[in-house]
Amino acid sequence: MTRTQTRELAFTLLYSLEIQKISKEEIKEQLALFLQEQEVKEEKVKNYMEETIHGIEEHENEILDLISQNLKEKWDISRISKVSLTLLKLAIYEMIYAKLPYKVVVNEAVELAKKYGEDHSAFFVNGVLANIIKKFHLDAQE
Which pLDDT tens digit goes with each residue over 91-137? Predict the structure, then answer.
């Protein structure tokens, strides 16, 4: 399974957890069920999924604050679609906490937004992530 496919799988699970309002106690069980249902056998994929899902859970408040701080004026996080919110959480976690190259993360988040989001989702996700990249000077790290 490629990294792109793995990231899409993580997005799918995160989106499902977002929609279902799964409690923190149930996340581990849901992750195990999801991996079994998707017939994921590769340890590398399982590890990425576990680290990502638990990392986002662990840093959720900081990630949500970052999203809120980087919205346009008069925009509130409650107005963001679940698809865009999930993609932003995943991308921010990967860039800030997992230290993955921001160009790859943003490109794949935008592609997932085009595939799963509304017409404007890709532009919205790209804009918020661009603000965060500038704020953290991630572009200077490459």
Answer: 999 999 999 999 999 999 999 999 999 999 999 999 999 999 988 77
Please measure the distance between the N-terminal and C-terminal CA atoms of the chain and give it in whole angstroms: 26
Return the structure tokens found at 4: 């792109």
| Whole-angstrom distance, CA of residue 142 vs CA of residue 117 | 29
Query: What sections of the chain are H helices per DSSP?
Result: 3-20, 24-37, 43-58, 60-69, 82-92, 102-116, 121-136
The total of other beta-carbon atoms located within 10 Å of residue 10's CB is 23
Span 35-71, pLDDT tens digits: 999 999 999 999 999 999 999 999 999 999 999 999 8
CATH of the domain at 107: 1.10.940.10
Q: What angle do CA 62, 60, 118 make, to 5 degrees?
A: 105
Q: Do 56 and 89 contact (CB within 8 A), yes or no?
A: yes
| Structure tokens belonging to residue 116 | 């799963």
Classify each residue of 51-65 as buried b or exposed e, where b means 16 or more C-beta atoms within 10 Å of its C-beta.
Answer: ebbebbbebeeebee
State the residue range of the domain holding 86: 3-141
